[in-house]
Amino acid sequence: MKTKAVILARVSSMQQDEKRQVSDLVKIANSKNYEVVDIITEKISGAKLNKDREGVQRLLDGARKGYFTKLLVTEVSRIGRSTMETLKLIDELHQLGVSIFLQDLNIETLDEKGEVNFQTELMVHMLSLFAKNERRNTIDRIRSGMEQAKKNGVHCGRPKGLTDSKEELVSRYSKVVDGLKRGFSVRECVKLYGTSLGTVAKIRSIIKEDLLQAA
Questions:
Q1: Residue 66 exposed, middle or buried by CB count within 10 Å (0-12, 13-18, 19+)
Q2: Cβ atoms within 10 Å, residue 203
Q3: For residues 151 and 143, is the Cβ–Cβ distance under 8 A?
Q4: How far is CA 82 from CA 61, 75, 104, 209, 212, in A?
Q5: What's this model's pTM, rounded to 2 decimal places?
Q6: Is 45 an annotated catalytic residue?
Q7: Nearest Cα to 20, choosing from 4, 38, 7, 6?
């Protein structure tokens, strides 16, 4: 039985063409005798969150259903430009038993036993360092923006005396929700968004509850 594979090709703008990526990866699939079960193309910035990328969600849906065990991409940046989001996607695919073939490095991220190989460990380690720096820069940018808003008289915290339902709370503090989903801690969100510790903790509980109900 042939190994089932998916091709993922991404470009950042409508003016760019992903056909060359697809053509190269189809040739690789044929040379390895893989059966290509899906070709996913995206014209979207790789800095977008995974949840906002239809192609990534389609990819994960197929992986969760066991439709394929190989993902072919020309390079790691085609998976994403946001280091944190890329690491999340790689880790989830590995947890689902999907190995990623990177054309530019000519490597598979999982070995024959389904374990992360040495080259991948080095790559993920480097990505983790970049993610740490990216996280620090993001926090600094948001904090700077919040401080500037306060100087301009914009209130960034919770309106006094306001009681929200779960839906209203999540809607009102969408930035906090996004921050938590990005992996920021409760205390980091408190500092970043000028929101009380209790409010952020409550939002985190709502998110966890929704994930459990969806499971």
A1: exposed
A2: 23
A3: no
A4: 21, 14, 19, 27, 27
A5: 0.62
A6: no
A7: 7
Q: What backbone torsions phi and psi does residue 41 show, to the nearest 5 degrees?
A: -120, 140
Distance CA 80, CA 87 (A): 9
CB 69 within 8 A of CB 99: yes
pLDDT tens string for the chain (215 positions)? 899 999 999 998 787 889 999 999 999 999 999 999 999 999 988 778 899 999 999 999 999 999 999 999 998 888 887 877 888 899 999 999 999 999 988 989 998 888 988 888 787 777 756 656 666 666 677 677 767 766 776 655 545 444 457 777 788 888 888 888 877 888 888 877 778 888 888 888 888 776 555 55
Please list, residue by residue across 92-120, b when 16 or more beta carbons sit within 10 angstroms of its beta carbon and e when fewer do. Answer: bbbeeebbbbbbeeeebbbeeeeebbeeb
The tokens of 133 are what?
């720096």
C-alpha 29/C-alpha 36 separation (Å) is 7
Which of 12, 82, 128, 185 is the catalytic position?
12
The answer to whether 124 and 90 are in contact (CB under 8 A) is yes
